[in-house]
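Bumping my old thread because nobody answered last time. Still need a sequence for this structure:
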């Protein structure tokens, strides 16, 4: 089982931005009965590659925003990757956008007080990166490679951090919404506000709109920790 390394929170960071809206922390609950907003930090994600080998990575945040009245949803995982940079910020969020249209099911599990959401997708999630090429520092290569690997699979399990205060009723409600599927929340999913206004790009091709893809020295679907930790557009 492969596991990504830990991140030193004391270094200079770039806070992940959400265009036109702010998703509250898991300790804050939305005031509207027809909305679900959660932010669960430092979760563990597991998945299987094409050889049925189990992989695992830590330090991924899960954000979900569902507007029941409008029948729209916004879901993403992300991890903060330290990069080689001559000027701040030296840490960038690398995202996996999970469009509701590709979600087959979300299953809520609670085993021995360990809560999980199991995702089954029809297509791979969108890998969203800065437009400029990035090179991960050695301590973040494993995390970056894991995020890239997750962008190449259609099922994974998010095991929530034990400190998460998100009510189980909210998690069960999220699971019950799929199917039927809401549509993508285009306002929250707008990439133009990411990376301090420079905008992000879809770096894989899970949607027809994708115009760029990820380059990696190791073959998909899993890039081992010995990879070069480089993501670029073509």
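Sorry it took so long. Here it is:
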């Amino acid at each position: 089982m492969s596991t990504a390394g830990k991140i030193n929170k004391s270094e200079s960071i770039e806070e992940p931005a959400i265009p036109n809206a702010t998703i509250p922390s898991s300790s804050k609950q939305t005031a509207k009965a027809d909305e679900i907003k959660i932010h669960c930090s430092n979760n563990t994600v597991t998945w299987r590659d094409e050889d049925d080998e189990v992989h695992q990575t830590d330090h991924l945040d899960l954000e979900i925003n569902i507007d029941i009245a409008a029948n729209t949803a916004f879901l993403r995982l992300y991890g903060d990757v330290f990069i080689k940079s001559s000027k701040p910020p030296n840490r960038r969020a690398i995202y996996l956008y999970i469009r509701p249209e590709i979600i087959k099911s979300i299953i809520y599990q609670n085993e021995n007080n360990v809560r999980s959401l199991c995702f089954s997708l029809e297509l791979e999630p969108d890998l969203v990166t800065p437009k400029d090429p990035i090179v991960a520092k050695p301590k973040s290569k494993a995390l970056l490679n894991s995020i890239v690997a997750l962008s190449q699979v259609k099922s994974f399990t998010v095991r929530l951090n034990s400190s998460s205060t998100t009510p189980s009723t909210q998690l069960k409600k999220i699971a019950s919404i799929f199917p039927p599927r809401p549509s993508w929340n285009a306002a929250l999913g707008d990439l133009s506000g990411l990376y301090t206004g420079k905008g992000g790009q879809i770096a894989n091709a899970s949607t027809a709109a994708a115009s760029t893809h990820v380059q990696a020295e190791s073959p998909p679907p899993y890039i081992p920790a010995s990879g070069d930790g480089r993501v670029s557009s073509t």
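The CA atoms of residues 84 and 135 lie 6 Å apart. Let me know if any region looks off to you.
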